[in-house]
Amino acid sequence: MQTVTEIALERGNRAVFTRQEAAYWTNDSGARLNALLKRSVGAGEVWRIRRGLYCLDKRYLHSSVNPLELAQRIHGPSYISLESGLSYHGWIPEAVYAITSASLVRSRSFDTPLGVFSFTRVPQTQFFIGVSRIETENGGSFLMADPLKALADYVYVHHCKWDSVAPVLESLRVDEHLLAELKADSFDPLMNHYRTGHVQRFLAGFRKDLGL
Fold first, then answer.
1. Which residue has the higher pLDDT, 138 or 1?
2. Contacts of 206 (CB under 8 A, 6+ apart)
3. In terms of Cα–Cα distance, which of 130, 209, 131, 208 is closest to 166?
4. Is the whole model's pTM more than 0.85, yes or no?
């Protein structure tokens, strides 16, 4: 009998797979499949990322798993934002411990063999405004907040009482030349997009200071 590891290597085209995919490969969704998964996880050949989501151990991979791409499969709908978004765009200098995302559903955190993934619910009128799809070299993709959207999400989640550009430069240490790249049309879709006044006040004050 083939192991789930062998089947995933033979049938799967990605390092990450779901229980549903394994059920399709084995034509079994019951006790036999549970035993196969448990055996592969126990042998260290497969990692359990969360309930129903698995990843082959790195010894079976030709390239490492992109954690930004993986985040989308762990919990969603979601997109990369907050500290991870700001770091991705080069807006903050600090290394980011967890992969941070904004979520349409409840906040969750997952401590996995591939790192910590944090999802925070951010209520919005239209969830994917200011979000771009980034294609990866291996044919995958992930959703990434644009810099201003990641910053607005940060202000919302951390309850920042900011109404100017100063704390962005001082607290987050964003390079001023990066702010010069922002355009008025980056602000327009977001101005009335968040349901809390402190984000709207921040965006209005931030925009005013930038002369946009």
1. 138
2. 162, 163, 164, 165, 168
3. 209
4. yes
